[in-house]
Specification:
With 188 residues, the protein is α/β, with parallel strands linked by helices. The chain has helices at 13-25, 41-46, 64-69, 97-105; strands at residues 2-6, 30-33, 53-55, 75-77, 82-86, 89-93, 111-113, 121-125, 128-132, 139-143, 146-149, 153-158, 163-169, 175-177. A 7-stranded mixed β-sheet has the order 4-3-2-1-12-13-14. It starts with a strand and ends in an 11-residue tail after the last strand.
Length: 188
């Protein structure tokens, strides 16, 4: 089973549309969002994905009431933490990197997904694959100099072989493979 994983949309419907078009064409069956949709209207765009969509809240999801009100049996909001079994793989999803690390180190899950820090990262901690799909928003590192551009990225996870493929959205909204090295440590 192919599972699309994305995070940190921050209302960027243009990058999200490109990512959704790609994962639909790739026959992904499930979509996981690791938080920071921001506005309730993002739920309308996520609804375009034909299969189940699982969402956890991030720290920038401003109107939790209206976001939750737009959920249903297919487009599900799970609060701040999600445990899910797909194709005999145990998954845990939350928004925060500092929470994802101890969850991954517990060894109870095959896959742990998170977002928050806008840093694409895929690592293996023991038997657990840990994925931060990076920001669909395409920006990171807010500081006194402002936001810095980073590639808008997302991941497709294959439950059958327990591997991930990464992709990025170009400025002209094309989706291309994103090369990465599987890390054996937590980003530091």
């Amino acid at each position: 089973m192919l599972v699309a994983i994305l995070s940190d949309i921050h209302d960027n419907l243009w990058n999200l549309a490109a990512a959704l078009a790609y994962v639909k064409a790739a026959d992904c069956e499930v979509l996981i969002c690791c938080g920071d949709l921001c506005s309730p209207f993002v739920m309308d765009r996520l609804r375009e994905f034909p299969g189940p969509v699982h969402i956890v809240f991030g720290n920038n999801d401003a109107d939790l009431f209206r976001i939750t009100k737009k959920s249903d049996a297919r487009l599900q909001v799970h609060g701040e933490f999600l445990e899910l079994t797909l194709d005999r793989r145990r998954l845990a999803v939350n928004h925060f990197d500092n929470i994802a690390r101890p969850i991954a180190l517990s060894g109870e899950y095959d896959l742990v997904c998170y977002g928050h820090n806008h840093r694409f990262h895929i690592a293996r901690l023991g038997r657990t694959l840990v994925i931060n799909p990076g920001p669909i928003m395409g920006a990171a590192g807010f500081s006194t100099t402002g936001w810095q551009d980073v590639p808008p990225t997302f991941v497709v996870y294959d439950t059958a072989v327990h591997t991930a493929a990464a992709f990025f959205v170009t400025s002209d909204k094309q989706v291309l493979p994103h090369s990465f090295t599987l890390a054996d440590s937590w980003p530091g």
